[in-house]
Amino acid sequence: MATRIIHLPKYSRLSCLVKPLTISARTFATATASTNPPQFTTLSVDDRTGIATLTLNRPPANALNALFMGEIQRSITDLEKENCRGLILTSSSQRIFSAGLDLKECYKADVASLEGLWCALQNLWRTLFSTPLITVALINGHAIAGGCMLAVSSEYRIMLPNFKIGVNETMVGLAVPSWLMDTYINIMPSRRIAEWDLTSSRIYSSESALKAGLVDELASSKEEALQKSAAFIDSFSKRTLMARAITKQQFRAEILRNFEQNRQHDLDIYLSTMQKPSMQEFLGEYLQSLDAKK
Ligand SMILES: CCCCC/C=C\C/C=C\CCC/C=C/C(=O)SCCNC(=O)CCNC(=O)[C@H](O)C(C)(C)COP(=O)(O)OP(=O)(O)OC[C@H]1O[C@@H](n2cnc3c(N)ncnc32)[C@H](O)[C@@H]1OP(=O)(O)O
Q1: Structural domain span for residue 45
Q2: Would you place residue 35 in the very low, low, confident or very high pLDDT band (cuts 50, 70, 90)?
Q3: The domain spanning residue 195 has which CATH number?
Q4: Ligand 1 centre and the CA of 100: distance in Å?
Q5: What is this structure's pTM?
Q6: Ligand 1: does its nearest atom lie under 6 Å from the Cβ of 291?
Q7: Which residues, in sequence order, are CB contacts of 110 under 8 Å at separation 6+?
């Protein structure tokens, strides 16, 4: 499992662009650092198509802690260096894509841990949002808050039916960070709907998310969703890849600039909010309510 990404052929050497994701796909796990074996992600790369599939695997909820987010971020960076063409982000769980930030690690945590968590979230968002790779979120389960962030930072979203997706921060008394707001606005057909959604903590069903434009397609199975994801990536011909990547980055540049200017302020807000006794009390109750569902 603990194989580094080393033998991925340069995409420029691939002779054929449109091939199904099958026979020559290799599966290996992504390293968290050059010396550490991966723990929470698995990466498979199709040598013929240059399409990578990064599978989130941190049971039970793919809750995002610093180590996990670092792994995802490094996988994307590694794939960029290898000139991989496209990335499909999905989950090993059959019901949760990602439940967002690991709230258990936000509860009664010291400042250094909270800071590590938030910086890892900022870095992951920045890397995913700005990558030149063609990105598809294959949402095969609930995608809440930080889980929805992963989806909306990608370029295209394909979701399986009967799940929930959305950003619920204001419901818990927290402001949505401006970079997440901008990311959400970037993909929604209407700014007005985006504002409504984020101010009201709207959580969509898969079906209503499709109608609203929050996701681009539904698929009835993961297999079908993988085929649709590959088709989206394949819809960009090799000839256009560089121009496409530059154009994508130009579209996203202003959001990234705003983020860099406010990065410290964004961290300060998070730290001060999370350290408030009232917030910690609420968080304790919220975690209990998740447990009480059993
Ligand atoms: C409330 C304080 C929020 C603090 C946030 C701070 C700042 C926010 C500012 C900006 C926002 C942008 C950055 C993103 C922030 C976030 O992502 S905050 C996380 C918000 N996420 C949620 O509120 C999701 C909570 N979970 C659920 O609603 C459900 O679990 C579900 C995802 C819909 C799945 O439901 P179901 O299939 O019924 O599964 P369970 O509820 O039984 O959950 C399974 C196990 O997973 C554990 N779990 C679920 N979510 C989290 C989580 N976020 N962190 C850690 N653990 C989580 C749950 O406790 C179960 O565990 P056990 O099986 O009991 O061990």
Answers
A1: 41-292
A2: low
A3: 3.90.226.10
A4: 6
A5: 0.91
A6: yes
A7: none
